[in-house]
Q: What sequence folds into this?
């Protein structure tokens, strides 16, 4: 399953992750590139102010997507934070990664 800036658009992130888990084939992976909030106070302020911009109003930018993935049966095997060169400053911090079901990694 590949998610490119889609998980932050969904109102029910835990439900979406359960859905991904349900359709994922054994030994399948979740590959994701998602906008994330910067850590700390600046991230909270940025996500709050950014939510007022029309272009990102429907995105849930205050979420910790990697934490939500880790709260499921997935384990993140690769992760990297990066900055996207966008004109919308709330959409600059991103995280890319790869996750597998915990049972599959344990084999």
A:
């Amino acid at each position: 399953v590949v998610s490119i800036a889609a998980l932050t658009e969904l109102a029910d992130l835990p439900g979406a992750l359960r859905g991904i888990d349900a359709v994922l084939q054994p030994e399948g992976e979740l590959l994701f590139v998602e906008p994330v909030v910067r850590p700390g106070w600046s991230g909270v302020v940025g996500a709050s102010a950014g939510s007022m911009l029309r272009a990102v109003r429907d995105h849930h930018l205050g979420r910790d997507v990697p934490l939500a993935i880790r709260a499921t049966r997935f384990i993140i095997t690769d992760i990297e934070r990066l900055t996207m060169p966008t004109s919308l400053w709330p959409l600059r911090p991103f995280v890319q990664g790869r996750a597998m079901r915990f049972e599959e990694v344990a084999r």
